[in-house]
UniProtKB/TrEMBL annotation:
InterPro entries: TagA_TarA, WecG_TagA_CpsF. Catalyzes the conversion of GlcNAc-PP-undecaprenol into ManNAc-GlcNAc-PP-undecaprenol, the first committed lipid intermediate in the de novo synthesis of teichoic acid. One of its GO terms (biological process) is cell wall organization. Its EC number is 2.4.1.187. Pfam families: Glyco_tran_WecG (PF03808). Pathway: Cell wall biogenesis; teichoic acid biosynthesis. Keywords: Cell wall biogenesis/degradation, Glycosyltransferase, Teichoic acid biosynthesis, Transferase. It catalyses: UDP-N-acetyl-alpha-D-mannosamine + N-acetyl-alpha-D-glucosaminyl-di-trans,octa-cis-undecaprenyl diphosphate = N-acetyl-beta-D-mannosaminyl-(1->4)-N-acetyl-alpha-D-glucosaminyl di-trans,octa-cis-undecaprenyl diphosphate + UDP + H(+). Belongs to the glycosyltransferase 26 family. TagA/TarA subfamily. The keyword Transcription does not apply. This is N-acetylglucosaminyldiphosphoundecaprenol N-acetyl-beta-D-mannosaminyltransferase. CDD domains: Glyco_transf_WecG_TagA. NCBIfam families: wecG_tagA_cpsF (TIGR00696).
Length: 240
């Protein structure tokens, strides 16, 4: 099921409800893109029609950001829990290991995808990592050929958004994988280069506050959240 937040579709399901649907797409050989939705992207999409189209055309839009949960509460919607990009990737990898579905990691600085792959192998010993490729290869056809030769079922692309989703959409018709997820800085997290917020912050949806404490310059981005929620509230009131 999906809910619309300021013109952007968002899945209402939890991790456990989404995973069977994602892997069912592999069995049906129906190529699918997973995008993470947060208030910042929703606000940008209001001014950027190409971004709005990209987000709404994805097969799965996960609610990555406490602001999306709050927005759903304001409009009395069905989204009750966050589905973060990095945790979705980890849950997909765990399930892929159990189902023997090979994965491929593409993006990041040289060596980072390899370190991320090593960490995934530690976390899920039975995982089949078909290959890795850093994001610095200039010949796109070489990248496509390498992925296709490896024949993975799932492809994780770390380039930052929306660059990673645009790359997926531009190439997926000629690519072997069925499931595609743009994962931003997730390879850096797995490689140990970037520390996530402690579990206590993650559980209550306060990762943004932890990052703000670590990086005060993010305050401009965080100010946008109250404005986003105000706009959702106005839209809800006007629709009554």
């Amino acid at each position: 099921m999906k809910e619309t937040v300021l013109g952007i579709q968002v899945n209402t399901e939890s991790y456990d409800e989404l995973l069977p649907k994602v892997f069912d797409q592999i069995e049906k050989q129906q190529k699918s893109l997973i995008v993470a939705i947060n208030p910042e992207k929703i606000i940008k999409a209001k001014e950027d029609q190409a971004l709005k189209t990209l987000l709404n055309n994805a097969e799965f839009q996960i609610p990555d950001g406490i602001g999306v949960i709050l927005a759903s509460k304001i409009q009395k919607g069905q989204i009750t829990s966050r589905v973060t990009g990095v945790d979705m990737m980890l849950r997909l990898c765990e399930e892929a290991a159990q189902r023997k579905k090979p994965i491929f990691l593409y993006g990041g600085k040289p060596g980072i995808a390899d370190l991320a792959a090593k960490k995934l192998q530690e976390l899920y010993p039975s995982i089949q990592i078909a290959g890795t490729q850093d994001g610095y290869e200039k010949d796109n056809q070489k990248v496509v050929a390498k992925i296709n030769e490896a024949k993975p079922d799932l492809l994780f692309v770390a380039m930052g958004s929306p660059k990673q989703e645009n790359w997926i959409n531009a190439n997926r018709d000629q690519l072997h994988p069925t499931i595609y997820q743009g994962v931003g800085g997730s390879f850096d997290v797995l490689a140990g280069n970037v520390k996530r917020a402690p579990q206590a912050f993650q559980k209550v949806g306060m990762e943004w506050f932890y990052r703000l404490m670590k990086e005060p310059h993010r305050i401009k981005r965080q100010i946008a959240l109250p404005l986003f929620l105000l706009e959702v509230a106005r839209g809800t009131k006007n629709n009554k």
